[in-house]
Design goal:
The structure holds 2 protein chains of 2 kinds. Chain A is α+β, with helices and mostly antiparallel strands. Helices cover about 20% and strands about 35% of the residues of chain A. Chain A folds into 4 domains: about 20-105, Beta Barrel (Thrombin, subunit H), CATH 2.40.10.10; about 125-215, Thrombin, subunit H (Beta Barrel); about 225-330, Pdz3 Domain; about 345-480, N-terminal domain of MutM-like DNA repair proteins (Alpha-Beta Barrel). Chain A is built from 13 helices and 28 strands. In chain A, the strands form 5 sheets. In chain A, strands 21, 22, 23, 24, 25, 26, 27 and 28 form an 8-stranded antiparallel β-sheet that branches. Residues about 1-15 of chain A have low confidence and may be disordered. Chain B is mainly beta. Chain B contains 9 helices and 32 strands. Mean pLDDT of chain B is about 90; it is low at about 1-15 and about 490-500. The chains are: A alpha+beta, B mainly beta.
Chain lengths: ~475, ~500
């Protein structure tokens, strides 16, 4: 009896040691740029989470923990020993990042956690937290669902685990590891205290991310570049001449995307991808997870550069199409969705503030940005996939006017898309700067796509007043291209 | 309805009012009791809910009663009653002008007018002068009087129509809901019709009245037997305060003129004015660089000159164009391109029902019931419809407003709220296009929507079977209602009857 007790506590101590050597506290100092005053940053704040030490001496966290960071520090659980860290690789869509301690010896003695297998609904696992004294807090968690869903910075969706777990309130809970049998099986990225449910990034997503990082050149997750709809409706199946069962209907194709360059067209019925049959709802039978949405099939299984094979039914005839997985549909968008860590581009001239449109600027308008932000900008951004603008033509717009004597009468204008200056088409903020610099005197005629159409400034007068306006509004630099 | 509500004003005896004014007001102010029915755009085939309310009105020359349009909108039964006569008389709407919230009632029984005279219209009262407001606000059944000071004379939104702004006079009279349409008087003359106010949590003791230029315009407009709406110059302009801009346009720095930045196609100025024209004067009134003109010694927006005119009258503009001054006469007409934003009261909602799919034209009323569920595409279609001049392509966008659940349409329910682009290969420009396009199908009808939504495919055979079932199930007596009636739409949607 006594022996038994002793043995149990020894095993517990050993397990605790192993755990101690596998996680660190991560403290990030965050300071995003102010999209409305792009020359300055907003008030700083801190985020704390728990990073997983990987076998190789690096630390895995969610990307959200270190987005817009000014610095990141690691801290050993049991002591106050700290070390600064650098972000070695980060993917905001997949919400994962790898940190490297500045001092390589900092994680000496940490064994790190190996990646475990994929989980199924009904499996149990643990969500780890740290007590103030550095001891591990293991919270029993249950996997409720496995399916494709939205990530914080990716609307198309990736595979995620729905997790039920009761987490006590602790300081370092912004990102937490999901563990099973002392192996890393996921990272908790969202948690709702009321329902006690959260979502976690599955181990295979992490594995795929780390492999991409390991080969030295990070390429990210590919995209298909199509919109599609389910094909359950027998009338619709008949109309598009779909075969008896299975397949999804393509409603839009980005010609630059993976599917578009493979030759897929609007109206095609995709029957299978890479040999995996799709059902009417766009699910395939995954060897790991069972019935799973196409998102996982085309974004997580293949790597950028690998071959894509499609079996489609076009006008009732089956055909095979082949192409190469890539990210062009997303990366070549004229208006980027994500803009973390980088200062927004801007140019101030005569009090007129020009910016290059990003999704981040629009989101600065708050939760109801689609109603509150200038409607033309919302339209250009939200419908850019269907309007397919030239990816090299950026949207340069007048975001606001800093009142000064020379811009009298213009001060209430904002959200106007710039078309050209003195007749020259504007394709980026950098090019706008070139055009403006080339005009030494005479009129600067700004033409916009919307009312009032034209605003005019005098070039030499603007030049004479630049410094005065810069000082009056305390702007350190009048342009960031 | 934003922060506005429609308030009814009680009358006041001002310190300076003579006994004569009260006497005349008592004789000629009438209580208007109305039972009205409001259409439900969620269920456009239903006759709507019945409610009743009370307002005020007053008798003007010619045995005519003036009240607010919002007092009688959707009226199914109207009675009027005077202070001196306990009987209630049946009244009818002779003319209604929803755009300026005025209406004229008539009473057939001559006994009603026994002992009445009529009230005369005065001018615009001076700022800080005292006015008396007569009406029947809540808190009692007899005539009530309150007094207020003229606080402001300015352009203001007329909330009843949802899109119009006209001259309005702000007064500080205590306002209580329940008696719109009553006369506001000064020195024995009517100087306005009480019509709206602010809610108490926004501002207190702020009331608005419709001034006499607006009332006179209404009376003159209906002289020919019908009401023709306000006219609009239908341009956008920009103040010309910036010296560099003035120099660019070749103008002296004399503080005059505004520049036209947009001309609405199909509007009054289409073909007469161009972008870049500088408007220097309007009907001989010099235009300041902020867009104001002096009218009767008071600064008002240049639109006020247009406001006082009627359909097919002209406005004379002095225009600076290509370095020269030209005179341009613009014949005026209503701005039908904005009619989508007008809240509709009388006309029954139009719709087409097909296999449980409900098609409705996009209107302010429909938007109000869809507001919570409308997607970004629909919201933008609505807000940018006029500014982007979408009416040139599609005078009246058609929305699949609902899918009434039935076994035959289980796969189509997610499509509610989509904008219809084409049916069976035919472009849908107005609701009138829907039925002919649906009739043009073979075995299947294919309805395509804007954006990348899937199409709706319906089999004729199934629709023929399901329609009677759906109509019985949902209590729908007519499968469609498409007559436009007197509704004004952007050009191209129906041939507009021109006034001869």
């Amino acid at each position: 009896m006594i022996l038994g007790l002793f043995l149990a506590s020894a095993a517990w101590a050993a397990e605790q040691d192993e755990a101690q050597g596998s996680v660190v506290r991560v403290r990030a100092a965050i300071q995003p740029y102010d999209q409305f005053r792009p020359w300055q940053k907003k008030a700083p704040y801190g985020l704390n989470g728990i990073g997983v030490v990987l076998p190789g001496g690096k630390v895995l966290v969610t990307a959200a923990l270190v987005a817009n960071r000014t610095e990141v520090g690691l801290e050993k659980p049991g002591s106050a020993e700290k070390c600064a860290a650098e972000v070695e690789a980060i993917d905001y869509e997949a919400n994962l990042a790898v940190l490297r301690p500045e001092k390589a010896e900092f994680l000496k003695g940490f064994k790190g956690l190996a990646l475990g297998p994929a989980l199924k609904a009904g499996d149990t696992a643990e969500v780890w937290q740290l007590e103030r004294n550095g001891e591990l807090l293991r919270n029993q968690a249950e996997i409720l669902t496995v399916g494709v869903g939205r990530y914080p910075n990716d609307e198309a969706g990736f595979l995620q685990y729905g997790v039920r777990v009761s987490l006590p309130k602790r300081d370092d809970s912004y990102t937490l590891p999901l563990i099973r049998q002392n192996q890393l099986v996921g990272m908790v990225m969202m948690y709702d205290r009321d329902s006690q449910e959260g979502t976690a990034i599955p181990g295979p997503m992490i594995d795929r991310f780390l492999q991409d990082v390991a080969d030295g050149k990070y390429e990210g997750f590919p995209t298909l570049g199509v919109s599609w709809t389910t094909l359950r409706d027998p009338n619709l199946r008949e109309e598009v001449k779909a075969p008896k069962s299975g397949g999804i209907l393509v409603t839009r194709v980005n010609p630059r995307g993976t599917a578009g360059r493979a030759g897929l067209k609007e109206g095609d019925v995709i029957l299978s991808v890479d040999g995996m049959k799709l059902d009417e709802d766009g699910n395939y039978r995954d060897p790991l997870y069972g019935l799973t949405a196409i998102g996982n099939l085309v974004r997580v299984r293949p790597k950028v550069g690998s071959q894509a094979k499609f079996l489609v039914s076009r006008d009732g005839k089956e055909m095979e199409l082949a192409g190469t997985y890539d990210r062009r549909a997303r990366d070549e968008a004229a208006i980027p969705t994500l803009a973390f860590d980088t200062q927004p581009r801007y140019l101030v001239l005569g009090g007129l503030v020009f910016q290059q449109l990003t999704g981040a600027y629009l989101q600065e308008w708050g939760e109801k940005w689609t109603e509150r932000a200038p409607q033309r900008l919302v339209e250009l951004f939200s419908f850019q996939q269907e309007k397919r603008p030239d990816p090299d033509k950026k949207v340069v717009f007048l975001s606001q006017v800093l009142p000064a004597a020379i811009n009298l009468g213009y001060q209430h204008y904002s959200g106007l898309v710039l078309k050209n200056v003195n007749g020259t088409e504007i394709r980026s903020l950098a090019q706008l700067a070139e055009v403006l610099d080339s005009v030494k005197e005479g009129n600067l005629i700004f033409e916009f796509t919307d009312d009032p159409g034209k605003l005019v400034l005098d070039a030499s007068e603007v030049k004479a007043r630049q410094e005065e306006i810069r000082k009056a509004y305390g702007i350190s630099e009048l342009r960031k291209l | 309805m934003k922060c506005w509500f429609l308030a009814i004003l009680g009358a006041v005896i001002s310190g300076c009012a003579k006994d004569g004014q009260l006497h005349e007001a008592k004789k000629n102010t009438v209580m208007v009791e109305v039972t009205s029915q409001v259409w439900d755009y969620r269920l456009p085939w239903n006759p709507g809910t019945v409610s009743s309310g009370r307002g005020a009105g007053f008798i003007v020359a010619g045995k005519r009663i003036i009240t607010n349009a919002h007092v009688i909108s959707g009226a199914r039964n109207i009675t009027v009653q005077r202070e001196a006569d306990p009987r209630r008389y049946a009244a009818k709407v002779k003319y209604v002008a929803h755009d300026c919230d005025l209406a004229m009632l008539e009473v057939e029984d001559p006994a009603f007018f026994k002992g009445t005279t009529h009230l005369d219209l005065g001018g615009i009262p001076e700022l800080e002068s005292v006015v008396s407001v007569y009406g029947f606000p809540i808190g009692g059944d007899r005539l009530s009087v309150t007094r207020g000071v003229v606080s402001r004379i300015d352009y203001n939104a007329y909330t009843h129509s949802g899109r119009e702004s006209h001259l309005a006079i702000q007064i500080d009279a205590a306002i209580n809901p329940g008696n719109s349409g009553g006369p506001v008087m000064q020195s024995d003359k009517v100087v306005g019709v009480a019509f709206q106010g602010f809610r108490g949590d926004v501002a207190q003791n702020v009331g608005y009245m419709i001034p006499t230029p607006v009332i006179r315009r209404f009376l003159k407009d209906v002289e020919d037997g019908r009401y023709d709406y306000y006219v609009d110059i239908a341009v956008r302009w920009m103040p010309l305060e910036n010296p560099a801009m003035r120099k660019y346009l070749g103008l002296a720095n004399d503080g005059r003129g505004v520049v036209v930045t947009d001309v609405f196609s199909e509007g009054s100025s289409d073909g007469y004015l161009n972008k870049g024209d500088v408007l220097l004067s309007i009907d001989g009134h010099p235009i300041e660089s902020d867009g104001s003109v002096r009218l009767e010694g008071k600064p008002v927006q240049l639109e006020e000159i247009v406001e006082r005119k009627f359909s097919r009258e002209e406005v004379r503009l002095e225009v600076w164009r290509g370095g020269q001054t030209e005179t341009v006469n613009v014949p005026l007409k209503p701005a039908d391109m904005f009619s989508m934003y007008e809240i509709l009261y009388e006309p029954p909602p139009r719709y087409v029902l097909y296999g449980g799919l409900v098609f409705q034209p996009l209107t302010a009323n429909l938007m109000a019931v869809l507001a919570g569920s409308a997607d970004l595409r629909l919201k933008q279609k609505y807000t940018m419809f006029a500014t982007d001049q979408m009416y040139r392509e599609t005078p009246e966008p058609v929305i699949l407003s609902a899918v009434l659940p039935d076994p035959s349409n289980v796969y189509l329910r997610g499509l509610a709220g989509q904008i219809v682009r084409e049916i069976n290969g035919r472009k849908i420009r107005t609701l009138a296009d829907v039925e002919p396009a649906l009739a043009a199908n073979g075995e299947r009808s294919v309805i395509r929507f804007e954006g990348d939504s899937r199409p709706a495919v319906l089999k004729r055979e199934e629709v023929d079977r399901s329609t009677p079932r759906i109509m019985a199930q949902y209590g729908i007596s007519e499968a469609s209602r498409t007559e436009v009636g007197s509704r004004r739409l952007a050009k191209g949607s129906y041939s507009q009857e021109e006034k001869k």
